[in-house]
Design brief:
Order of helices and strands: HHHHHH
Shape: globular
Helix content: over 70%
Radius of gyration: 17 Å
Largest sheet: none
Oligomer: single chain
Distance between the termini: 62 Å
Number of strands: 0
C-alpha cells in the first residue's frame, strides 16, 4: 500500500515508471549523438542506442509504448518525457541535413523512428530469434546505415 501514498492509482504509478524510462532513453539518445564523429553518424548512433535500450530494458520499453497506460497524455510528465525523446531524434535529423525542407525533416524523423522502433519491437517480442541476423547492435548498425545512405542518396537527387 505504500506506493499509493505517493500515486493516485496504479496507472499513475506506471506512468511515473514509463516517464523514468523516457528520460533514461532521452539521455542515451543525446549521449549517443554527442559522441559521434559527425551529424549523420550521430543520427545512426541515436538509432542504435534506441534499439539497445529496448534490448536492455524490454519490460520498460513495452510499458512505455504499449497499451498498459490507457491515456498517456493525461500524465503531463510522461507526455513531456516522450516528447523529449522525439525532439532528440528531430534535432539529430535536422543536424544530418539530408534535405532542406522542414516538411522533409518531419518525414525523415518519422522514417527513422519507424525503423528503430519496429526493429526494437521485433527484438523485444522475440520475432528475430529464428533468423541468424547477428547481435542486436550489429543489426541496428547495418539498418541505420542503410537508411542513412538511402536518405543521403535521395537528398543528392533533390539538389
Amino acid at each position: 500500500m505504500a506506493p499509493y501514498r505517493h500515486f493516485a492509482d496504479k496507472e499513475a504509478l506506471l506512468a511515473a515508471v514509463a516517464e523514468y524510462g523516457f528520460r533514461e532513453l532521452a539521455a542515451r539518445l543525446t549521449a549517443a549523438c554527442a559522441t559521434a564523429a559527425d551529424p549523420r553518424a550521430g543520427l545512426a548512433a541515436l538509432g542504435v542506442a534506441y534499439v539497445l535500450f529496448a534490448r536492455d530494458q524490454p519490460s520498460l520499453f513495452k510499458l512505455m509504448f504499449g497499451p498498459t497506460i490507457a491515456e498517456k497524455s493525461d500524465h503531463t510528465g510522461l507526455d513531456e518525457a516522450g516528447n523529449a525523446c522525439f525532439n532528440a531524434l528531430r534535432q539529430a535529423v535536422e543536424a544530418a541535413k539530408f534535405f532542406d525542407s522542414d516538411s522533409d525533416a518531419d518525414d525523415v524523423s518519422l522514417a527513422c523512428w519507424s525503423l528503430v522502433h519496429g526493429l526494437s519491437a521485433l527484438l523485444v517480442d522475440g520475432r528475430l530469434a529464428e533468423h541468424d541476423l547477428g547481435p542486436a547492435e550489429a543489426v541496428a548498425t547495418r539498418l541505420t546505415r542503410l537508411l542513412s545512405d538511402s536518405l543521403a542518396a535521395l537528398g543528392d537527387k533533390k539538389t
